[in-house]
Amino acid sequence: MSSTTHQLGIRVSGLVHLYPIPEGDVVALRGVDLEIAAGEVVALLGPSGMGKSTLLRLIAGLFNPSAGRIFLGEKDISQYKSRELARLRGREVSLVLQGATNNLIGYGTVLENLVFAADTKASRARAQELLETLGLAPIAHRVVRTLSGGQQQMCALAVGMVHDPSVLLVDEPTSQLDHVSRDLVVELLMRINAEYHTTVVIVTHDPHIASAMPRTITIRDGRVGAEGRFGEEFAVVGQDGTLQLPPHLRHVLPPDSLVKVTQIERGLELRLVEEGDHE
Ligand SMILES: Nc1ncnc2c1ncn2[C@@H]1O[C@H](COP(=O)(O)OP(=O)(O)OP(=O)(O)O)[C@@H](O)[C@H]1O
Question: Of the residues 32, 52, 57, 174, which should be mutated to test ligand 1's pocket, given the most ligand atoms within 8 Å of the CB?
């Protein structure tokens, strides 16, 4: 077994991203702050369109953010030029796109896909090792398009590991998989983390993946809305002191509510100010 020796954590601070479109800018991220330790496994959760994929792509170095900083280890990649980002993507960070086949050559075998993705002697040697370590040796000579969805996804994850990345980013790895394949994919992600100590960040809608993760980060309205530890959810106070209410409690304090905030022994008490309270 060879292991990643250059583990990297991720630190994101005040991250904002806008997509300019003719009708005006779409604000995808509006101030994300988060820290993921080297070697951690984290799932990014949240409703559709809330900015998860944008965050994953920015960490992957596909493009620069509109504002804010992204640190991989000590390096601030937020203003990297496109050539520096390309070097980063080829080595330290690996992004597995949604839809396994978007990462694979369908007419090639599993081994051919791994070897094709490998462009150095070290990564070619690693291709063979990955097949063994990740339990893909029995399907090494199968043509990718003849594999099940779960096997294709496992192959895509192995391809993502060919360059021995410090950070593996995975977009929706279990969408359209049955529960048996889904469990195998989750198991493989955990095995990758355990064997290679790779930092793993997974974007998912799948509550089963979320419940299998030691840590979840929920992105809501372009910010970190909540964090989960072993299935239990917590609201997160942002750098600017803002706190998003959990969705199931939002009706208690609807937008524009006046709230009295009082410090109590272990936290704060929030009390809705009703009309007539001051009379
Ligand atoms: N290339 C783009 N051009 C314009 N707007 C975009 C682009 N990509 C994403 N958006 C918009 O940015 C916002 C965040 O999108 P993003 O894909 O990051 O969310 P998401 O949480 O990953 O959603 P999903 O779970 O559906 O993939 C959405 O309003 C989306 O429509």
Answer: 52
The CA distance from 149 to 151, in Å, is: 6
What integer best gives the mean pLDDT of the chain?
A: 88
Instruction: Give 24's DSSP letter.
Output: E
Q: How far is the CA of 186 from the centre of ligand 1 (A)?
A: 25
Question: What spacing in Å lies between the alpha carbon of 49 and ligand 1's midpoint?
Answer: 5
How many whole angstroms from 133 Cα to the centroid of ligand 1? 35
Q: What pLDDT, in 10s, does the model give residues 118-172?
A: 877 877 888 888 998 888 999 999 999 999 999 999 999 999 999 999 999 999 9
Question: How many angstroms separate the alpha carbon of residue 16 from the centre of ligand 1?
Answer: 13
Q: Pick one of 3.40.50.300, 3.10.310.40, 1.20.1090.10, 3.40.630.30 as the CATH number of 10-243.
A: 3.40.50.300
170 Cβ neighbours under 8 A, 6+ residues apart:
95, 96, 157, 160, 189, 200, 201, 202, 203
Query: What residue type is assigned to position 275 of the chain?
Result: E
| 192-204 confidence digits (pLDDT tens) | 999 999 999 999 9
Residues whose beta carbon lies within 6 Å of some atom of ligand 1 = 19, 21, 26, 28, 46, 48-54
